[in-house]
Amino acid sequence: MGRKEDLEGHICESYELIHEYEDILRLSNSPKEKARARRALEEQWAFIEGYLSEYLSLCRRIGTPVPAHIGDIIAHFEAIPDKWGLSGIEEAPSTAATQPAPPGVSVSLLTDIVPTAYCHHLDANAFPLITVTLDNTGRGCANAALCVSTTIEDYSDTAIASPRVPRGEQVRVPLLPLLKPAAVATLNEIRPATLRVTVEQTAPTERTLYDQTQRIELHARDTALLAVKATDGSIVDLTEYLAAWITPRHPEIEKLLRQAAEHHPDQQFVGYQGAPTLAQGAEIVRAQARAIFTALRQDANLVGGNRRHHWEPPGTGQHPGSESATVAPGCRPAARCSPTTCAPWWCIER
Q1: For the chain, which domains are there?
Q2: Model confidence over 127-142: pLDDT tens digits?
Q3: In 3D, which of 187, 123, 142, 138 has the Cα closest to residue 9?
């Protein structure tokens, strides 16, 4: 394909995108979406103007008339002078039809609930918040390079993947944006957020294939979820990530662990990494957990309420999610509990 045909393809693709963005401006009720569409329109018109400058100069140099479909696009530019050769416009078949067909794009959301408390321990393979399926099996498709990205606006960095999809194949791209610590620190309750997913084709043709937003919920940073419900109704088990709450480096916690060791049969905590079998490792953990619970009950005077999953420090009568419910001076609870979804353990952080 020569440079002339390549430029015609770029012009036609930008013009098609302009129609799509104009539809958004006409039909959308979202101010944010309309603002993005206006910016995109300005950008595409700027692209077309740049392409046309080179294209018309090339047509004059090689003595080729401008095809009618390009002339229609040129008509939108009132400042284009006659010397660019519009008088030589003639009918010609559109080159846009010869462009490779774009890959199909489908986006699935694992869950609209983000477990903020230990999201930094998750990765896209274990917890694919977004899965983008790129289908390059359609008629007229060619080998394609794409850029797939997602972000939680105001709360995360942008997760980016750059897959290459051979003709006749499908590729699934899992993504999980990384939450920003400063933004997470402000989450003291469930808060709605906007998840944006974008798919750009970068070769053999540059074009936007997908750009949509979706509402999700960010849970409080001090809520340890046991599970979340997926969009298909299944349950995503998160109990293994409760390890994220283990022993913060706080003097009062260190003191409590020393007291707990006195209640252990071996008078010490040896860890469990060196256990020869999983069963032996589990028993080591149980013995340590029993010692810690004994220390909490006898040394820290922590008592359990009558309701399941409800722990009440004496004298407070409050749920451990309350800031005033503390085990020791200088410590404050880090995990809120609820009867069905949150950890039945009072976690303490710095």
Answers
A1: 3-98 (no CATH), 104-237 (2.60.40.2550), 239-349 (no CATH)
A2: 999 999 999 998 888 8
A3: 142
